[in-house]
C-alpha cells in the first residue's frame, strides 16, 4: 500500500481525533494553578526594597533545583510547540480544536512551576529568566516532521515529560512541590494518551508508513529541552540522580508504548515495514544495552564514593 499524504491522513484519522478529543474533555479534571502555589511564603525582591535571592534561601537540593529548572524551561517553549503542532494538524475540525485545548492545558504548567519557584525562592530568579529568554529565542524546530512522525514523537515525549515531572517531584523532598508536579504529570499523561491512540489507529490505516515513523522517532529521539543552555550537563546530573536516565527511557517510555501498539505482533507488513521493524528492534536492543552499561557505571561510582567516605 502506498504511503498516504498529509491531507488524506488528516481526513482518515479525523474521526479518531474527534473521538479522543471528546474522551479527553470528558476525562480531564478542571484544576486551578494558583491553588498549588504557597503564596504566603512570598516576599519582595531587591527592586521593590526586598531581599535579593541567595542560595541559602532555597529549601531544594542542588539536583532538585536543576531538574525543576530543566522541566520549567522545557514547558516555557510552548509557543514553538504550538507552532509545530498546528503546522502538522491544521486549524480545522477536531484537529484544530485539539491543538487549542492542548496548548491551553500546557500553558498552565509553566505558570505554576515558575510561581512556586519564585514564591519559595527555590532557584536563582535572574538566572532562570536569562535561561528562559535564551531558550525561547532559540525556539524548538522539529524540522517539519511528517504528521505520523509528529504523533509518534509526541507520544514518547509526553510520556517522558510525565515521568520527568513525577520523578522530580519525588526528589524535591518537599510536599507542595511534589503535589504540584503530580498534578502537572496527570495532564501530560492524558496528552500522551491522545497521541498514542492516533498512532494506534494509524497502524491499522497505514501500517508500513506508521512503522517507519515510529522507528525514526525512537532512533532519533531527543527531548525538546535539548536547546536549554547547559542541557547536556544538566541531563547527565539528572541521570546520575536517577530522575531521568536511559534505563527509565527504555523501561518506562519506549517499551510500554511499543507494547501498547502491539508492534512486535503486528502482521501484514510489506518488505519496507518489516525492515523498519527490524531497525526498531535493533535500536531498542542497543538502548537496553546502553542503559545497562550506564546503570552499572553509576553503581560503581556510587560504591567508590561510599568507600571513600567510610575509609
Q: Sheet with the most strands?
A: none
| Computed structural class | mainly alpha
Low-pLDDT residue intervals, each spanning 5 or more residues: none
What is the strand tally? 0
- β-strand amount: under 5%
Order of helices and strands: HHHHHHHHHHH
Cα-atom radius of gyration:
21 Å
The portion of residues assigned to helices is: over 70%
Secondary structure tally, helices? 11
Shape field: globular
Name the quaternary structure: single chain
End-to-end CA span: 67 Å
Mean pLDDT metric: 95
Subunit structure: Homodimer.
Keywords: Fatty acid biosynthesis, Fatty acid metabolism, Iron, Lipid biosynthesis, Lipid metabolism, Metal-binding, Oxidoreductase
Family: Belongs to the fatty acid desaturase type 2 family.
InterPro entries: Fatty_acid_desaturase-2, Ferritin-like_SF, RNR-like
Any descriptors?
311 residues, mainly alpha, 73% helix, globular
List the helices and strands and how they pair.
Layout: H1 6-27, H2 62-76, H3 78-89, H4 93-119, H5 125-138, H6 147-172, H7 175-205, H8 207-219, H9 231-241, H10 246-261, H11 271-310
Helix pairs in contact: 1-4, 1-7, 2-4, 2-5, 2-6, 2-9, 3-4, 4-7, 6-7, 6-8, 6-10, 7-8, 8-11, 10-11
Can you describe this structure?
Its cofactor is Fe(2+). This protein is mainly alpha-helical. It is about 75% helix and about 0% strand. The protein has eleven helices and no strands. The longest helix has about 40 residues, at about 270-310. The model has no long low-confidence stretch (mean pLDDT about 95).
Amino acid at each position: 500500500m502506498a504511503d498516504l499524504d498529509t491531507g488524506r491522513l488528516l481526513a482518515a484519522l479525523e474521526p479518531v481525533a474527534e473521538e479522543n478529543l471528546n474522551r479527553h474533555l470528558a476525562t480531564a479534571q478542571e484544576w486551578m494553578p494558583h491553588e498549588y502555589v504557597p503564596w504566603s511564603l512570598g516576599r519582595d525582591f531587591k527592586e521593590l526594597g526586598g531581599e535579593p535571592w541567595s542560595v541559602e534561601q532555597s529549601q531544594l537540593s542542588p539536583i532538585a533545583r536543576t531538574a525543576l529548572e530543566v522541566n520549567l524551561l522545557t514547558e516555557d517553549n510552548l509557543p514553538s510547540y504550538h507552532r509545530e503542532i498546528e503546522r502538522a494538524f491544521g486549524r480545522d475540525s477536531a484537529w484544530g480544536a485539539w491543538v487549542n485545548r492542548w496548548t491551553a492545558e500546557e500553558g498552565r504548567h509553566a505558570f505554576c512551576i515558575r510561581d512556586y519557584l519564585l514564591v519559595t525562592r527555590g532557584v536563582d530568579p535572574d538566572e532562570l529568566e536569562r535561561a528562559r529568554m535564551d531558550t525561547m529565542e532559540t525556539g524548538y524546530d522539529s524540522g517539519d516532521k511528517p504528521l505520523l512522525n509528529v504523533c509518534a514523537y509526541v507520544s514518547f515525549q509526553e510520556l517522558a515529560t510525565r515521568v520527568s515531572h513525577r520523578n522530580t517531584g519525588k526528589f524535591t523532598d518537599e510536599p507542595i512541590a511534589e503535589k504540584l508536579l503530580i498534578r502537572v504529570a496527570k495532564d501530560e499523561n492524558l496528552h500522551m494518551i491522545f497521541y498514542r491512540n492516533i498512532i494506534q489507529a494509524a497502524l491499522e490505516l497505514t501500517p508500513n508508513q506508521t512503522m517507519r515513523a515510529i522507528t525514526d522517532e525512537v532512533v532519533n529521539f531527543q527531548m525538546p529541552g535539548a536547546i536549554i543552555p547547559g542541557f547536556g550537563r544538566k541531563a547527565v546530573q539528572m541521570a546520575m540522580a536517577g530522575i531521568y536516565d536511559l534505563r527509565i527511557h527504555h523501561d518506562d517510555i519506549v517499551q510500554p508504548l511499543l507494547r501498547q501498539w502491539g508492534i512486535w505482533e503486528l502482521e501484514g507488513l510489506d518488505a519496507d515495514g518489516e525492515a523498519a521493524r527490524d531497525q526498531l528492534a535493533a535500536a531498542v536492543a542497543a538502548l537496553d544495552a546502553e542503559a545497562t552499561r550506564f546503570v552499572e557505571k553509576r553503581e560503581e561510582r556510587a560504591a567508590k564514593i561510599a568507600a571513600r567516605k567510610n575509609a
